[in-house]
């Protein structure tokens, strides 16, 4: 017991000396690039050519526990979402809900006919779903509307279609094999992605059955090349959304076992507002409300338009939990665009709003933020900047519980790749990760930790590759971060 006590005293004495040395280097104006106080394991990546910025601190006192080029600005990838979450909470508070409404440009007569257009006013809800649209339709029926002699107009006047500025989103204009690069619109539904359900056919050799997840009847052209195979066979599905002058087509190939449950496929749509229009038209038809056709618009509803129905989305605190836990790019960029006051917002406007918020934080420098999701590789912040953000949110008692709730605890986080490191790291750290593979490798992580004596701390680690460095997997990075943070946590 006494031996352990003396070891702890020697360790703390060594740490104090290290901090004095670091302070002297700062006063003398010497570079800190070679100093890895507290990040001895992480610094080994520098020998392989990776560029690193890192800092860990105790909150309250501001005591530094570790630093490695903390002022170097690097790409944070999806760690950017911490700025989006913080700015959103600061603007609206945890209980804010985004409203989507149906407006009428004319009157409804005694027979339930709307003489004019039915306008969906997209409110920028980042989690608007088909269920929300179904509720709108039911509330429209409660108002007695049975037919519309004009057309359905989906208005994305707040933002959309948003100009693509990343390779993935620009490619998704014509084809997409994923959902993360979905296009953006203030009137988007289902995260800007088509959802289709694949079920096995009636007999082996039959084509599979493909239906829309919300309306059953397909809303997108289908190129179904999926065959039903025998009981116990493997299920393998490949899907790509392809766009042309005829609109979106979903091409699905592969096979599905006869005894399999249905599988859901999500692929980003080329035009989220049109996707919303098609979905709403199908729901109106199913409810017996006749509408002649649809159009999309980038102008607000007329000032004379009357509200017929409205639906509120989920509270912001629930949106942030999903956005941060699953690193949802569509939700993050939509929330950042919502921060822009002027209509027809673009990602640059959203980035400017986030930068203004960041620069008002105590101790924060001038960042470069071109999006709220981190998909834009131009984003640049430093480890010190991130710690300033984390410290500011920690000190905001009304917002901190919601903010920290969105971070992952490694031991039970939904992202399996973070379940690494010691038990101390697994159970004492709350974090958000960021990953990019092009144009260079980015592995970033930031968040909070609790020391063994119960004190709160924050940390940020940014690892960027270059054109000469090899691919870097999380299994090569996270154990190093975990080892360094474990030492800090157990020493305090």
Automatic annotation (TrEMBL):
This is D-alanyl-D-alanine carboxypeptidase/D-alanyl-D-alanine-endopeptidase. GO terms for molecular function: serine-type D-Ala-D-Ala carboxypeptidase activity. Its EC number is 3.4.16.4. The gene is dacB. Keywords: Carboxypeptidase, Hydrolase, Protease, Signal. InterPro entries: Beta-lactam/transpept-like, Peptidase_S13. The keyword Hydrolase applies. Belongs to the peptidase S13 family.
């Amino acid at each position: 017991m006494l031996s352990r006590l003396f070891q702890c005293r020697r360790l703390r004495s060594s740490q104090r000396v290290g901090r004095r040395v670091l302070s002297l280097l700062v006063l003398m104006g010497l570079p800190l690039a070679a100093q890895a106080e507290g990040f001895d394991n992480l610094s080994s990546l520098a020998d392989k050519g990776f560029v690193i910025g890192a800092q860990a601190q105790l909150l309250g006192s501001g005591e530094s526990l570790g630093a490695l080029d903390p002022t170097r600005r690097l790409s944070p990838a999806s760690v950017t979402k911490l700025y989006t979450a913080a700015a959103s909470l600061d603007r609206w508070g945890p209980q804010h809900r985004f409203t989507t409404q149906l407006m009428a440009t004319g009157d409804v007569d005694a027979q339930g006919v709307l003489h004019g257009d039915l306008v969906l006013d997209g409110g920028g809800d980042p989690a608007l779903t088909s269920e929300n649209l179904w509720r709108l339709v039911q509330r429209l029926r409660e108002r007695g509307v049975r037919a519309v002699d004009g057309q359905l107009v989906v208005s994305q006047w707040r933002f959309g279609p948003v100009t693509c500025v990343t390779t993935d989103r620009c490619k998704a204009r014509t084809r997409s094999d994923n959902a993360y690069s979905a296009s953006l619109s203030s009137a988007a539904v289902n995260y800007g992605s088509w959802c289709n359900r694949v079920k096995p056919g009636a007999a082996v050799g039959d084509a599979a059955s493909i239906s829309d997840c919300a309306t059953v009847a397909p809303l997108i052209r289908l190129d179904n090349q999926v065959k039903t195979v025998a009981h116990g066979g493997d299920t393998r599905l490949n899907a790509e959304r392809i766009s042309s002058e005829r609109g979106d087509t979903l091409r699905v190939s592969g096979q599905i076992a006869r005894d399999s449950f249905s599988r859901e496929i999500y692929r980003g749509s080329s035009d989220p507002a049109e996707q919303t229009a098609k979905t709403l038209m199908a729901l109106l038809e199913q409810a017996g409300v006749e509408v002649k056709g649809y159009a999309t618009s980038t102008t607000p509803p007329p000032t004379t338009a009357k509200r017929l129905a409205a639906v509120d989305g989920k509270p912001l605190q629930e949106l942030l939990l999903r956005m941060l836990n699953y690193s949802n790019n569509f939700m993050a960029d939509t929330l950042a665009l919502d921060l822009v006051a002027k209509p027809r917002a673009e990602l640059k406007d959203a980035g400017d709003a986030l930068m203004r918020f960041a620069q008002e934080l105590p101790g924060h420098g001038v960042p470069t933020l071109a999006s709220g999701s981190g998909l834009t590789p131009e984003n640049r912040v430093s480890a010190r900047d991130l710690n300033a953000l984390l410290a500011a949110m920690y000190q905001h008692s009304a917002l901190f519980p919601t903010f920290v709730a969105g971070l992952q605890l490694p031991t039970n986080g939904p992202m399996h790749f973070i379940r690494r490191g010691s038990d101390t790291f697994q159970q004492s750290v709350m974090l958000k990760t960021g990953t990019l593979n092009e144009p260079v490798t980015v592995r970033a992580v930031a968040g909070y930790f609790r020391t063994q004596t119960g004190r709160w701390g924050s940390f940020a680690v940014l690892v960027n590759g270059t054109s000469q460095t090899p691919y870097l997997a999380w299994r090569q990075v996270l154990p190093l971060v975990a080892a360094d943070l474990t030492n800090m946590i157990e020493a305090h």
